[in-house]
Amino acid sequence: MAETAYRPVIELDSRGRLPLARFGVAGRTQYIVEPTEDGGFMLTPAIVLTPRERAILADPEAVASIKRGIADAAAGRGSVRSFAEFLDAPDDPDDD
After folding, report:
1. Which residues have a Cβ under 8 Å from the Cβ of 31 and sit 6 or more positions away?
2. 46 — phi, psi (to 5°)?
3. Range of weakest confidence among 21-25, 44-48, 56-60, 85-89
4. pLDDT of residue 57
5. Assigned domain for 53 exists
6. Model's pTM, two decimal places?
7. Domain range spanning residue 54?
8. CA 73/CA 1 separation, integer angstroms
């Protein structure tokens, strides 16, 4: 007889929640829940982005610049400077 893979059964608690910690899920993890045709659910890890983060990630030039900056920092290139002068600067008018 073929060996069957272990498939744990979990039960909803009184508030309708599933205990996922035993599967290595950290607290406060977010998922997209998609019902499947057979009555199950597909859980896909998700993150939340601000509109600004989404705009930056959608801009290939901005992403390339960030990657260059990370590579420069990893290689020890660049300098450290204070951004204190910007603390009281007015907000960017494009921040809507």
Report:
1. 43, 44, 45, 46
2. -135, 160
3. 85-89
4. 95
5. yes
6. 0.50
7. 48-77
8. 57
- Residue 43 makes CB contacts below 8 A (sequence gap 6+) with 31, 32, 33
- The span from the first CA to the last CA of the chain, in angstroms, equals 63
Number of domains in the chain: 1
Contacts with 22 (C-beta within 8 Å, 6 or more apart), sequence order: 8, 10
**Per the domain annotation, does 58 fall within a domain?**
yes
Q: 58: closest CA among 47, 50, 69, 46?
A: 50
Choose among 28, 31, 51: nearest CA to 41.
31
Assess if residue 5 is contained within a domain.
Answer: no
Helix, strand, coil share of the chain (percent; to 5): 30, 10, 60
DSSP 8-40: ------TTS----GGGTPPTT-EEEEEE-TTS-
Residue 89 falls inside a structural domain: no
Give yes or no for a contact between 74 and 68, defined as CB atoms under 8 angstroms apart. Answer: no
